[in-house]
Amino acid sequence: MGIVSFILSFGCRSTDPVATTCDILIINGKIIDGTGNNWYYGNVAVNNGKIIRIGRAVNLPAKKIIDAKGLFIAPGFIDVHTHLEDDEVKDPDATSFILDGVTTCVTGNCGSSNVDIGKYLKWIDSLKLSINVATLIGHNDIRKAVMGRANRDATPEEMKQMEALVDKAMRAGAVGLSTGLIYIPGTYTKTPEIVALAKVAAKYNGLYATHMRDEGDSVTYAIEEALTIGREAKIPVEISHFKLSGQHNWGRSKETVPMIEAARKEGIEVPIDQYPYTASSTSISTLIPDEILADGQDSIKARLQRPDIKNMSSIPCLPD
Ligand SMILES: [Zn+2]
Predict the structure, then answer these.
(1) Which of 73-77, 221-225, 313-317 has the lowest mean pLDDT?
(2) What is the pTM of this model?
(3) What angle do CA 43, 8, 53 make, to 5 degrees?
(4) Separation of 122 CA from ligand 1 center, angstroms?
(5) Number of neighbouring beta carbons within 10 Å of residue 165
(6) What is the distance in A from the centroid of ligand 1 to the CA of 265?
C-alpha cells in the first residue's frame, strides 16, 4: 500500500476560506482522515505548514503539486512502542520512521526511560528531530533511582519518593507510566506498588503501558494483573507487544483476546499493540533467574560462584 504521509498531522488543519493560493497541493490521492471514515478521493491544500483545505473540489493554484495517484494520503502515524533512548542523535532526520510514514514516536516503554523527563524533553527539542517525540516515565528507572536493584518491597518512605518522581515526570510532560515486569527490578515489584504509581499518572490523565510479567505460559495471569492495575488506578492500560511466546502457546489468543474484550465492556480503556512478525528480541539477562540479578555486580558475581547455582543443570523459570 503506497502512502503519502503528512509530516503535519491532520490535527494541524486550519481551514482558511479566503486563501486563493497554497504552497502545496496534493491531488488524486485516496484520503484516510484518521477518524475511522472510509477512504475517499480528494485533494489536500497546504499553506504555511498547515492543511488549509481537504476535499474533492479543492483545486487552488499551488507552488508545488504532488500527484498521489494510486497512493493513500494519511495523517502521520504514531508509533506507540519505541525505544529511542541512546539512538536520538544517530539520525536526526529519523529516516527509518519517516519512510514508514511515522511522524510521532512514543518512547520510554517497557519500564525504561530517562528519570528527569523535563531535561530529556528539552534535550529532544534541541536536537530538532524530524519526528515528534512523546515519552512515558519508566518504572524500572524510577525504582532503581530510589531502591537500586533491591529484591524486596518498597518501604512507605521509598513509595513516597517513587510517587514524587512519577509526579514530577508527569508535570514535565510524560504521557504515562510504563512497566517492564520481566526486567530487573520490575520483576521484584508486586502489583500494589504499580497501582500506587499508576494512580499518580492517572491524576494527570496519563496512561499505563506495560510489558507484562509474562507473555508465554502464564500470560493470562499477566493480563489479569494489567487489567487489575487499570481497574484500581482508574487508568487506561496499553498492553505492549501483545503476543503469545512459545510455539506451544500459539492459538491461545482464543483466551487472551476475549479477556481484552470483556475488560472493554467493563469500562476499562485497554488498547493493545502488536508487531507484525513472529520473532522477538530482548536482553540476555532475562534468561538468568531474577534472584541472581538482585543488588550490584559484586552480589551477582558472588551468587554465580555458588556451587548450587554453578551446578544447576538447567535454569528454572526460563521466559519464553
Ligand atoms: Zn517490551
Answers:
(1) 313-317
(2) 0.84
(3) 30
(4) 25
(5) 22
(6) 26
